[in-house]
Amino acid sequence: MTRPRPEPPRGNPMRTRVLAAVVAGALTPLVLTAPAAHATAAAAPYDFNGDGRADLAIGAPDATVGGRAGAGAVSVVYGSSTGLKTATRTLITQNSAGVPGTAEAGDAFGSAVASADLNTDGYADLLVGAPGEDVDGDTNGGTVVAVWGSPSGLSGARTVVDYWPDQTDRYGQSLAVGDLDGDGDLDIVIGSTGSTDLNFINGPVTRSGSFQGASGARFPAPYSTSYGVTSVTAGRISPAWPTSLVVHGRQSGTGTAVTQLVTDTSIGNYTDWLQALPVGTVSAIGDIDKDGYADIAVGNPAETSADPAGGKGGKVTVVYGGPDGKDTSRGPLVLGQDTPGVPGAAESGDAFGSSVFLGDVDGDGFADLAIGAPGENSGTGSVTVLRGTASGLTTKGAASYTQSTAGVPGTSEKGDRFGARVLLADHSGDHRAELTVAAPGENAGDGAVWSLRGASTGPATTGALSFGPSTTGVSTTGTPHYGATLNN
Q1: Do the beta carbons of residue 446 and residue 476 sit within 8 Å?
Q2: Parallel, antiparallel, or unpaired: how do β-strands 157-159 and 169-178 relate?
Q3: Is the Cβ–Cβ distance between 340 and 334 less than 8 Å?
Q4: SUPFAM superfamilies, from UniProt (predicted)?
């Protein structure tokens, strides 16, 4: 059966809705607003139980649930003083008590995740996208749910409203959170396909009661409405703006990647605030050189034969931030496996840059960069970690990890795709980020996750943890691809 779309609450008046004509190079803003209460300080993202440690959300969007293939699931493993602790976990599906909807074939629940303390109660909440959900007769209309944090972890949920269901499909294929309008409340960014492919849900979002309105945009050509906003990253590039967005999509016809930076999301006309970025499919935001301006890493795993902006074996481009968004006084840093100091060698199909993440592995205050290359060595996969310094990212002391690295559990096998997703987050509370790596192809598509503790010398393999879907209650029927999604 299909689940009906929630209607916008009647008590939430529509003040304005502006639909401008689409013109080349311009966004079409749709605005829907209502008064919102000023928010208090929010808990850190992914700290669902408020203990000061980041927890881990693991998406398995192809998981079978209740006999329904591809319904999808999300496992949450909580942090502890020793890092991730699989004994404390929560499994979330659309068959879970308190979660709206019903697990159905092809829902792809867990295709995207994001986190923030949406209701500012001191506990981070989890957003989950199910872009394959059929809603009110609309095939692949898509849906997003917010699952609430508490002292005991995640429980209870509500559907996040889609104000323009006739203009969106695959609602929830990408997610992010940020203060988009500078009012102190956290807003939800939802990517979709269709004529409105970037949707902003105004905060605060609470357990019950009215939503606070929304706005939406049609990203300009060459973004294709068929692909929509495939990935979006939110962060504060400059203190001048509360939140900036890196928006990824595909071009019509060719399907090649396209990427833009929206520096200021607090205004209605985004056109004047768009800055072109190096082309890629994924991105990460963090302050590599600790100069007060966040930097952007863009991953492009494509070969030049598939994307002229790609590179042999894939590449990552680092754009340094400044007061106006990009720091135009510094050229971008382009990294591949043929870059001096980067381990390995660039080979066709490595897919270097399929995943990127910025976080402080060694606790020195500079953001370090993790790069996944899941195509390395016939799809066995690898991960490279580069360190941040006052002068920017350095290849000195760069390290590479595979399942054949001493201390890393498992064995490198073709098709594992180790490094398809990477994450740097402090799960232990020691102010050093653990390196989490997903291999969704492990064990013929079951998938698995690894966690390496952060240390002054970089990720440590001593005591490395590895676990698969069965450990956290996800069925191995079919190919769940556990780890296809991690904390964004």
Answers
A1: yes
A2: unpaired
A3: no
A4: Integrin alpha N-terminal domain (SSF69318)
By CB atoms closer than 10 A (0-12, 13-18, 19+), residue 424 is buried
Span between the terminal Cα atoms of the chain, in Å: 31
| Composition of the chain by helix, strand, coil, percent to 5 | 5, 40, 60
User: Tokens 């969007």 identify what position?
Assistant: 61
DSSP reduced 3-state for 348 = coil
Record the tokens describing residue 66, joined without a space: 């209740």
Q: Please give the Cα distance from 261 to 274 (Å, whole number).
A: 6
Q: Which amino acid is at 118?
A: L
CA 22 to the chain's CA centroid: 28
pLDDT of the chain, 488 residues: tens digit per residue: 444 444 444 333 222 222 222 222 344 444 444 444 444 456 899 999 999 999 999 999 999 999 999 999 999 999 999 999 999 999 999 999 999 999 999 999 999 999 999 999 999 999 999 999 999 999 999 999 999 999 999 999 999 999 999 999 999 999 999 998 888 899 999 999 999 999 999 999 999 989 999 988 888 888 999 999 999 999 999 998 899 999 999 998 889 999 999 987 765 555 567 899 999 999 999 999 999 999 999 999 999 999 999 999 999 999 999 998 999 999 999 999 999 999 999 999 999 999 999 999 999 999 999 999 999 999 999 999 999 999 999 999 999 999 999 999 999 999 999 999 999 999 999 999 999 999 999 999 999 999 999 999 999 999 999 999 999 999 999 999 999 999 99
Got the DSSP string for 177-202? EE-SSSSSS-EEEEEEESS--EEEEP
Written as six digits, the tokens of 476 are 């191995």
User: Which structure tokens are listed for 238?
Assistant: 């400059």
Nearest to 142 by CA among 76, 85, 196: 196
Cis geometry, peptide bond prior to residue 61 (ω within 30 degrees of 0): no
381 in Cβ contact with 344 (< 8 Å): no
Task: Read off the DSSP letter of residue 447.
Answer: B
Task: Determine which helix (DSSP H) or strand (DSSP E) holds 377, and give its type and residue range.
Answer: helix 376-379
